[in-house]
Amino acid sequence: NSEITATFSGFSATTTATVTPAVLTDIHIDPENGNINAGDKLSYSATGKYSDESFHDLPSNGQWLSSNPDIASAQPIGVTNGEATGLNEGTTNITVRVGDIISNEAVLTVAPAPITLDSVKITPTSGLVILEAEYQFTAKAFYSNGSDADVTRQATWFSDNEEIIGITTTGAEAGYAYALALGSANVSAVYDGMTSNSANI
């Protein structure tokens, strides 16, 4: 508080002026445009502009919002930081709100989650065969979207004891095995850089 006095021709008047702390007038968040895949996260930073033209951290009651929470969710990870998590394909706007002040809208585009190779499995997984028997192994690739595919011919096959179990490693007859001698051997396959389970024969 401060008293302000004016004097003129022998007369004076006094009033009290009250100066309050600077108040938040605007919020800006970055990045203004973002692209992520479903399942991924994107971090945002927010800057608060105040009535004295200064820039400061946001108050701790900042609320991060997503205009379409089915596409992406938003949450605070600090006073001036937020984070969006992609949920489904589409577009949403990310904002932060403090009281009646709402930031600019940051556009977030979410693409479908990429399909990745989860595992490679061969069959049979074990077995007892007679000498000189010939038989076919099969390999399946299992993917993150729940699909699977026969990759027997695309895989590379291995036997850890080729004197007992011989196997065609690649090509049109990949995975075709031969029982050459008495004993035990482990068979496996590699597809797209991933090694399968081991089958003991």
Task: Kindly describe this structure.
By secondary structure, the protein is an all-beta fold. Helix content is 0%, strand content 55%. The chain contains no helices and 22 strands. Strand 15 and strand 16 (148-150) form a beta hairpin. The chain is rod-shaped, with a radius of gyration of 34 Å. The N and C termini lie far apart (91 Å).
Summarize this structure as a short list of keywords or feature phrases.
55% strand; 5-stranded antiparallel sheet; 201 residues; 5-stranded mixed sheet; rod-shaped; 0% helix; mainly beta
How would you state the average pLDDT, rounded? 94
Which spans have pLDDT < 50 for at least 5 consecutive residues?
A: none
Number of helices: 0
Instruction: Describe the largest sheet.
Output: 5 strands, antiparallel
* Distance from first to last alpha carbon: 91 Å
The total strand number stands at 22
Structural classification: mainly beta
Shape: rod-shaped
Order of helices and strands: EEEEEEEEEEEEEEEEEEEEEE
Strand content: over 45%
